[in-house]
From TrEMBL:
<keyword id="KW-0614">Plasmid</keyword>
<keyword id="KW-0732">Signal</keyword>
<dbReference type="InterPro" id="IPR011044">
    <property type="entry name" value="Quino_amine_DH_bsu"/>
</dbReference>
<feature type="signal peptide">
    <location>
        <begin position="1"/>
        <end position="17"/>
    </location>
</feature>
<protein>
    <submittedName>
        <fullName>Uncharacterized protein</fullName>
    </submittedName>
</protein>
Amino acid sequence: MKKLILLSLLYCTNMGAQNLYCTMTSYSNNVMYDYMNKLNNNSGAQMSSNYLFSNGSSNIGSASFDSSSNMIFTLNSSLNVLGKYNVGNDTFSSLQLPWPANTAELYVNVAMANGRLFAVKESSSNIVSVCEFNKLTGNLISEHIYTTPSLSGFSDFAFCQETNELVLLVNSKIVKYNITTGSETSFNLPSAGYTSIVPVNQKLYVTKQNTVSGNIVFTIESYQLSTGNLVSSNVLSTTFTEVDEGISNLCFLGVTNELVGTISSQNEIRLLKFNIGTYAESLTHLFWGPYYFLGDMVATTPMPTLSTHENLDKIKSKKIKNVYDISGKKISPDTKDQIIILEYEDGTHKKVFQKR
């Protein structure tokens, strides 16, 4: 009996305790079975596995983490099913999203943005809009029709918290939609072969793949998100003679200052880490194929308790060691008007919203 294994990788970090989750779909007797597996961060060894559901002949695709609910939101595009996995208690639930009125359209990727759920909609390989859904009920809240022309060849979708923008990579074009103002802007990347994006500190990191003298070469570039100007370009030292899938599942781990993604070559899935400060890179074995399909990787800070109107003055009885934003990046203790994460000297953590 032949089995097909499909994976979507997700990174979770809990201020020093970093956990790797993957959604695994096994295919047996024409039925797919989805699991959420917790893996060892260094070795990739399976630490726990939780059965989610079986859904015929399609699998979980994209995923995004919502820090306000401590949940990984997943999307099965073929079935139009939204999944919600709580990383605190390992529970899973799902609901049906409303189907697009046009039967040729489908939702292809999701992103959480300040506690709000968004999905991009595609029609005949062209991105047409970004939709907001109620994350509790799945009801459609609003839809923004993209005005930027020629959005064919979708690759990636991400949210930049610093600018409040949903960022879309389509072929060699970057399209930005501000969820606060409703404005849309775009710029073109200088060449082709781009695969993944991740915004960090108002810069946009983009991965690129091309062939040089018969070898497959990967490059990580960064651009100013506001202007589209090139900031840096780094060619990875490891080259390949063949790849099953280039750099994908890209995310940023603020606590280590690293971009993290995966590369699939000759039935081996490897974890790529790239430090954006030192440019150090590493590749670690994760899985052997032969049939792995990788989805999203998500950097998270799962905290079960959120105080939405709590000031630092009320919790001065404990000594604060570090302060982070919800992406895991160290920030100033004086940061105001956003959710911050306090790390205490005793090793405990707390989410608060600090007002001015």
